[in-house]
Amino acid sequence: MHEVVTKGRWRRYMAAGAAAALVAMLLPVAHGADLMSQARARGVLRIAVEGTYPPFNFKDPKSGHLTGYDVEVARLVATGLKLKPQFVLTEWSAILPAVASSKVDAAISQVIITPEREQAFDFSVPYTYSNFQLIVRKNERTTYRNLDDLKGRKLGVRQGSVFEQQAKEVKGIEVRSYPAVPENLQDLAFGRIDASLDDSLMVSYLLKHSELPIKAGPRVGRDARIGVALRKGNPQLKAAVDRILNQARADGTLRRLSLKWFGIDASSATR
Fold first, then answer.
1. Looking at the domain 4-129+225-262, which fold is it?
2. Could you tell me which residue, 209 or 75, shows the higher pLDDT?
3. H or E segment at 185?
4. What kind and span of H or E run contains 270?
5. pTM exceeding the 0.85 threshold for the entire prediction
């Protein structure tokens, strides 16, 4: 069974996402110290995941084992590198700081690629394409067509996420940030917030498996490309991960995993 490591002490990094990104940008590239060689010496690829974000990465309620689309992609990558995957459960806001400080080798946890993040981290080729989507209560009578319609309302987002960033760009929305999705959706169901903003692939899965009185709202904002996040200055590791993901796309593996978890092929931008 693959080892899962919980790092509770990483919570002190929760407010340090931006600072860690800046540090990563300023650090000199250490030639000859590529994480690929370090990972091979350990025989293990350390992978940060939330573990609370279905259908991407979560603990199966029956077995208690870590599962999900990201988990299967992570195992695919580790196997391609001839390494054992070691999953490190990490709150979302601490995931990128963990990559920046080399506490993990990679983050495979539905990390959206943005220009700001690309300045601080290297990303693999995208392995998933998605959209932003609102979630509302089933008995919601107000029709939200876009984020502007939420001015004067309370919107729940994951702390440190791109969803949080986009919500805060719209003046007038009261943004409530949560460490993980379950707390966010519980508050939505109980009326403590008016809507939630998250990944459309998660929303589709959630509505099929959750008993909460919630429903899908409109897709809003920008499209999203998701990749494996790596610390800058590790070209060997990035090239190897890209090669594995490109092969998995070419031979249909990513499409098969996508259909399994989402019911659609989200492995390509043309869908």
1. D-Maltodextrin-Binding Protein; domain 2 (3.40.190)
2. 75
3. helix 181-189
4. none
5. no
